[in-house]
Amino acid sequence: MPLNPIAQAMLAHMNANPIDWASITPQQFRAMSAGMEQPADPSDAITHEDVDADGVPVRIYRRQEVQGPEPVLLFLHGGGYIACGISSHERLCSRLARRAECAIVSVDYRLAPEHVFPAAVDDALTALRWLGEHGEKHGLDTGRIAVGGDSAGGSLATVAAIRARDEGGPIIRHQLLFYPGTDLTGETESERLYSDGYFLDSDFSAMCLDAYLPNAADRAHSWASPLLTRDLSNLPPATILTAECDPLRDEGRAYADRLRDDGVVVRYKDFPGVFHGFVSMFGVLPDADEAIEDAAGELRRAFAKVPA
Question: Choosing from 183, 246, 250, 270, which is the catalytic residue?
Answer without folding.
Answer: 246
